Amino acid sequence: DSCPRAYYYRYEEGIERADKVSSQALIYGSLFHEFLEKHHRNLPYEKTVVTDDTLDKQMFIMLNEQIHAYIKNRPKEKFKFLMVEQPFSGKFVDPKTGRKTAFTLSGIIDGLVVSSEGEYWLWENKTTSRADQAYIDRIYIDRQTHIYKKKVEELFKKELNGQQIVGVLYN
Question: Which of 46, 86, 121, 154 minimizes the number of CB atoms within 10 Å of its CB?
Fold first, then answer.
């Protein structure tokens, strides 16, 4: 901390820079995603217990309760997971010309599943403290899932057997 003002805020006022402080909600969501990845890869449940010390005690208890409730109450899915937490990267393609652009899209899809009817779906895990109507309305116009759908169809044609992704399932 060679900057006197940064020193003052950090050590005198106890204020951390926003980019250096991890939000409890983000940590919670990341850990629940980690559990879901293990769960959908069919790892033994006892290996999915969270033992992370970055959450405060109340959030830690809540997360473990949510994990155990998910395991106990979740009906057996009628989907086969083809991919779980699959990273991808590829150039954007201009829809008008069909040419690749200079822009690269990278991301991680939570899952790609096939239903018992043979339909392919993106699987999207969401954690939120407020699943109100406004949140649900925003899901329908979420650009991320529309972009991911197109990119996954482009990059994983073989896995999709030439079919398109029907839509997005929110978990």
Answer: 46
Q: Residue 26 and residue 37: Cα distance in Å, rounded?
A: 16
pLDDT digits (tens, 9 = 90+) for 48-93: 455 556 778 888 888 888 888 888 887 676 888 888 888 888 887 7
User: How big, in percent rounded to 5, are the helix, strand and coil portions of the chain?
Assistant: 40, 25, 35
Q: How many CB atoms lie within 10 A of CB 161?
A: 9
Asked if 159 and 83 count as a contact pair (C-beta separation under 8 A), the reply is: yes
pTM recorded for the entire structure: 0.66
Which DSSP string do the residues of 93-110 spell out, in sequence order? E-TTT--EEEEEEEEEEE
Distance CA 125, CA 29 (A): 9
Q: 93 forms bridges with which residues in the sheet?
A: 100
- What string of DSSP letters covers 28-76? HHHHHHHHHHHHHTT--GGGG----SSS-HHHHHHHHHHHHHHHHHPPP
**What one-character DSSP code corresponds to residue 23?**
P
